[in-house]
Description:
The complex is a heterodimer of chains A (110) and B (112). Chain A contains no helices and eleven strands. By secondary structure, chain A is an all-beta fold. In chain A, a hairpin with a 2-residue loop joins strand 6 (54-58) and strand 7. The mean pLDDT of chain A is 92. Chain B has 112 residues and is mainly beta. In chain B, the strands form two sheets. In chain B, strands 2, 4, 5, 6, 9, 10 and 11 form a seven-stranded mixed sheet that branches. The chains are: A mainly beta (110), B mainly beta (112). At the A-B interface, strand 4, strand 5 and strand 9 of A face strand 4, strand 5 and strand 10 of B.
Amino acid sequence: QKEVEQDPGPLSVPEGAIVSLNCTYSNSAFQYFMWYRQYSRKGPELLMYTYSSGNKEDGRFTAQVDKSSKYISLFIRDSQPSDSATYLCAVTGTASKLTFGTGTRLQVTL
Amino acid sequence: EAQVTQNPRYLITVTGKKLTVTCSQNMNHEYMSWYRQDPGLGLRQIYYSMNVEVTDKGDVPEGYKVSRKEKRNFPLILESPSPNQTSLYFCASSLDTTYGYTFGSGTRLTVV
């Protein structure tokens, strides 16, 4: 079993839709949770960071963590074509090692 | 501008010909790491470094070497590249990895 599972998509939504991206993880030692966005031919960039269970909001983006079910989510409101990218969840519990999901490719259409 | 710089961006080489991918960061970060990204497998850690002269293996270290002689530089060395090392490589650095890494733009390596 992979430490982090993520649906690869692709996910196609119309502009303005609410997008829900999800990951599950297996190790309860993971304490820090991140979402990265990766545009084509670019490196991943940190989008959201959370530590505890609950929600964290930043503009149109909301990261949600449920440690009891080992489930993390990223919601994008009012999605825009510029949100089209691959979204990677990442988890860590110790220094140096970040474990990534395989990424979900999102396409927002006009 | 704070950044992680990798070179080259693209590289095509032949099996067995030693190569080095350079990585440099200007943020005075202690942690540096190399990842490879493959379709369906995501990002997998090759090696990481916690400080100068301190390195350790990640999940897929076979066929790779690293060194950390200076804080800002963390080159990735392939002594004898093979076709299964064809991949997209990312260098990353962090002040505290619990807050995530800053990634470079990537090096696309093809070994024929």
